[in-house]
Structure prediction request, 226 residues.
Amino acid sequence: NAGVTQTPKFQVLKTGQSMTLQCAQDMNHEYMSWYRQDPGMGLRLIHYSVGAGITDQGEVPNGYNVSRSTTEDFPLRLLSAAPSQTSVYFCASSYSGVDNSPLHFGNGTRLTVT
Amino acid sequence: AQSVTQLGSHVSVSEGALVLLRCNYSSSVPPYLFWYVQYPNQGLQLLLKYTTGATLVKGINGFEAEFKKSETSFHLTKPSAHMSDAAEYFCAANFGNEKLTFGTGTRLTIIP
Prediction:
């Protein structure tokens, strides 16, 4: 049982480059989300999705795009990377939202933008 | 504004001592509350949650938390710390929307 799988584990980008962080879950979860974790700031929500075809912005959406074409996948796109986007990114999913269902987290992608 | 505050970014306790990690929320309506734990180089795992009902909630690994509406608090405790408890702990709240709001985290160090 793979759970939530994030790729890559590490990535170094130059300012202005683009990339996609991949997230896949095999638990048939409706809800998926992306967080960034920065020292002293906890986890901040970037984007989330309550089901295929539906996405919405979180607390810090600027500079990031998402799409949800299938239940399983929720990729996060950085169109033009900036040093401020250096962070650890976590994808998380839950069965039916965050009011009662626990979030299942991937192991993170550590991104450095130079 | 609705928020979650964790007092103390670093807490150190001796092995066998009481663990107390503090969490307060700001909201006119009590939210659903959660504690998550993060071990090095891993994602977060759910420790326990409070939604409705009994205000003392028991979780995994001997942890428990008590919801106190009058104090807007949801502090995490464990009677006797173990070396394996060393990790970062996050309090989180759902304020009735589709988002989970996290506190800034508390790093717990266990002194042998």
DSSP finds no helices and eleven strands in chain A. Chain A touches chain B through 27 residues (CB under 8 Å). The two ends of chain A are 36 Å apart (CA to CA). Chain A has a mean pLDDT of 95.
